[in-house]
Amino acid sequence: EVQLVESGGGLVKPGSSLKLSCVASGFTFSSYGMHWIRQAPKKGLEWIALIYYDSSNKYYADSVKGRFTISRDNSKNTLYLEMNSLRSEDTAMYYCAKSGTSPFAYWGQGTLVTVSS
Amino acid sequence: DIQMTQSPSFLSASVGDRVTINCKASQNINKYLNWYQQKLGEAPKRLIYNTNNLQTGIPSRFSGSGSGTDYTLTISSLQPEDFATYFCLQHNSFPLTFGSGTKLEIK
Predict the structure, then answer these.
(1) A1 in contact with chain B, both atoms CB, cutoff 8 A
(2) DSSP category for residue A109
């Protein structure tokens, strides 16, 4: 069974940094691209980043480009999202999701990031 | 960026009704369109991928159709567990973009 478990969220002040993790199990993590998606409170979904299975390519939404970095450690079956210069508009539930022939078949339960002074 | 215009935003229907939800892309997305269901406090669940492929384990009352810029999710006979919010996603090109959602409520 595919499982994705996010962690690392919390309450932080504007301008600060935070690193999210997503531990994967139930599939060959090193063979699949992985995404981060977020959902602001009572809002829609926003794709924010993709990393290829071998970290050879990374893509970002304009809203986070230059501030967020996606990475992975295939030896630990773990996906990361390093978030710098956080803003109030980054407040959201952050989900990791598995890629494949078609994206987002599997999602984690999410980790909540709140940016507030 | 490809904009996804989803309609309606709200839909009130009864158990047993047939409902349709639409997504219109700002350009051709070559059938790279998925549908997701989200219930309160839960992660989204994929229902349909690549326009008309039913995700394993999803009931056959859900179906998808479309091409080019226009896509539709149909629920043939609403069940109580179907009352939720539905989103479309285009994955034809980056950035991947979602529709704004349709909240399906009980009439």
Answers:
(1) no
(2) -
Residues 6+ apart with CB under 8 A from B32: A102, B50, B51, B90, B91, B92
Q: Which residues in chain A show pLDDT less than 50? A: none
Cα A18 to Cα B82: distance, rounded to the nearest angstrom: 36
Q: pLDDT by residue (tens digit) across B25-63?
A: 999 999 999 999 999 989 899 999 999 999 999 999 999
The values of phi and psi at residue A80, to 5°, are -130, 155
Q: Closest Cα of chain B to A106: distance in Å?
A: 7
Report the mean per-residue pLDDT for chain B: 96
**Of B46, B53, B100, Cβ closest to residue A104:** B46
Rg (CA), chain B: 13
Mutation to test the B interface, candidates A5, A36, A45, A52, most B Cβ within 10 Å: A45
Please check whether residue A40 is in contact with residue A88, taking contact to mean a CB–CB distance below 8 angstroms: no
Q: Is A40 in the B-facing interface, judged by CB distances under 8 Å? A: no
How many angstroms away from the CA of A31 is the closest CA of chain B? 19
Does the beta carbon of A47 lie under 8 angstroms from any beta carbon of chain B?
A: yes
Interchain CB contact of A105 with B (< 8 Å): yes
How is residue B43 annotated by DSSP?
-
Torsion of CA A89, A6, A31, B95, to 10 degrees: -10
